[in-house]
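ok trying again, last paste got cut off:
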Amino acid sequence: MNSGPLRIALVDDHAVVRAGYRRLLELEGLQVVLECADADAAYAALTRETPCPPDLLILDLSLPGRSGLDLLRRLHARLPRLRVLVFTMHDGAATVVQCLRAGACGFITKSSEPQVLVDAVHRAWRGEQPLSPDVAAAVRTLTHREPHLALSAREFDVLQALIGGASVDDISRRLQLSPKTVSNYQTLLRQKLGVGNAVELLRYAREHGLTGA
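nice, full thing came through this time. structure:
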């Protein structure tokens, strides 16, 4: 883990907005090491070999060309350990869930107070999943009805493999995870989906149309 200041990348198409973020974050002792205005430039910069890559990306969804969500999906596939905090005007619960499923570690709306963003950066780095207050309640309501929507991209990958009949060892090889990690995911999935065993997990998947997803 980085022992110096937390290194931040900013992706937003408005230079004035990025300048405001930079000042806010640097006043909090964080270091902005990369700024980009569009998804293609961001992807190229973030996937380039560098001795001091960013620890966390703050990403807007509304970008020229490729969307922020598309960038999020591409980065999650290429750099799964990069933490990506979505910071956007969009506030629909379905959009939040879609971003979390695509690999975002949190979701903050631009209508939030500045300190909410700063706190979210620190929480995301600690491994938490920060959501701004204006979307948290809506997401809880949606995911209470459809708890699989709250799964991370990796959790959903494991879920799909399990309901497809793959063993822990199969999933371990397929996803390049240790068997212990896969077993932990299996336990966590059952807890999140409210099922007690493999049969109930398969039933849940069938009831929610996941077996052919």
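cool. Residues 179-193 form the longest helix (15 residues). The radius of gyration is 18 Å.
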